[in-house]
Design a protein that fits this description.
single chain, 10 helices, Wheat Germ Agglutinin (Isolectin 2), domain 1, alpha+beta, seven-stranded mixed sheet, three-stranded antiparallel sheet, 347 residues
């Protein structure tokens, strides 16, 4: 597969979005976040999402211009209505505001309702950790359901991703997980590639555990199991309910309301360690623990004990130096859009 520079990929994605009518600030932010997802190795939630975004724009389900509407602002607590603007644009705006407010108040939380999809959550974390801040991001889509509550068999809520990042004396720690054992994007990719999951991560419509991703999109549909699976899914289930409360609950719009279209409700919290024991003291603790993790003897079959995000950051550094090799399905899916919009296709 050919390799591409991150700059070329951003220019290509931005051109497709701008030709679709998206305002420059939103198109560039979206392009950068999607490419960042691929740089970190999260290739189901990077440029793989762009064809669906372009379809949403073409059909009027994603706003092309505008700004979030302030619903409430108490300084350290803010709520926006995202007006169905591109999610990466909204989340980057929110992180910048939360960082500014956290320097004043010690922390700042922002809830965004009616955002569009926000892509890879890990792609936002360095925007905060590079400033010496800790950041939490939660996301849900109140208009869809693919995960069953623990003990149930009917899909009720979304995978509900959770991302957390914080600085250390070295590289930051970047956590990006879902409250489900897998995601819709990975299920769709495995179906397309004819692959099954490595274990019984899903339920069919009758509630039987299976490794077949096709059950998610069957009629009647099955569901994805919570993080922890059949044996310990109560843990992921509890996290998922918390994500629902923090996103839709605090945002004031969600599953209790009439269905809308594909999108997201978001909650983020920026924390400034300087307002607590100080950044130096914070990183002394997180750095010590990071060093202790690396010094921990690996179990058989493991080459080294790593921090969350360490492999992703190594992938990012290598891709920035040598070029990024995209998943084979990504550029073919974008080729028809490039032709339709009159944008030169990447090799």
């Amino acid at each position: 597969m050919p390799r591409h520079t991150a700059a070329d990929l951003v220019l290509f994605a931005n051109a497709l979005l701008e030709k679709s009518g998206v305002q420059r600030s939103a198109s560039l932010a979206t392009a950068e976040v999607l490419v960042e997802g691929d740089l970190l190795g999260h290739d189901t939630h990077g440029l793989a999402q762009l064809p669906a975004y372009l379809d949403e724009l073409a059909n009027g389900r994603m706003a092309k211009s505008g700004a979030p509407v302030v619903v409430n602002d108490r300084g350290a607590a803010v709520t926006w209505d995202g007006q169905r603007l591109p999610g990466p644009y909204l989340v980057r705006l929110a992180i910048d505001l939360a960082a500014e407010r956290a320097s004043l108040h010690g922390l700042c939380a922002i809830a965004i309702r009616r955002s569009h999809h926000i892509a890879c959550l890990a792609a936002y974390l360095k925007r905060a950790t590079d400033r010496g801040l800790a950041l939490l991001i939660l996301s849900s889509d109140p208009n869809q359901g693919s995960v069953a509550p623990f003990g149930g068999r009917k899909a009720l809520y979304t995978p509900n991703p959770i991302a957390i990042g914080w600085p250390t004396t070295g590289m930051p720690v970047l956590v990006d997980i879902s409250a489900s054992i897998t995601t819709n994007g990975m299920s769709a990719r495995r179906i397309k590639e004819g692959n099954r999951f490595p274990g019984p991560w899903l339920l069919d419509a009758a509630g039987n555990a299976t490794d077949d991703p096709a059950v998610v999109f069957a009629d009647p549909p099955g569901s994805i199991l919570p993080l922890g699976g059949i044996e310990a899914g109560h843990k992921g289930y509890g996290l998922a309910l918390w994500v629902e409360a923090m996103t839709s609950g605090l945002g004031g719009q969600g599953r209790a309301d009439p269905l809308d279209a594909w999108g997201a409700n978001v909650f983020l919290l920026a924390i400034d360690p300087e307002a607590f024991g100080g950044l130096a003291a914070f990183t002394a603790q997180t750095g010590w623990l990071a060093d202790a993790v690396h010094a921990n003897p690996p179990r058989p079959g493991v080459d080294a004990v790593r921090l969350p995000g360490e492999r992703a950051l190594a992938h990012r550094a290598r891709a920035l130096k040598e070029g990024l090799e995209l998943h084979p399905s990504i550029l073919p899916a974008l080729a028809p859009w490039a032709e339709r919009l009159g944008v030169g296709m990447l090799p």
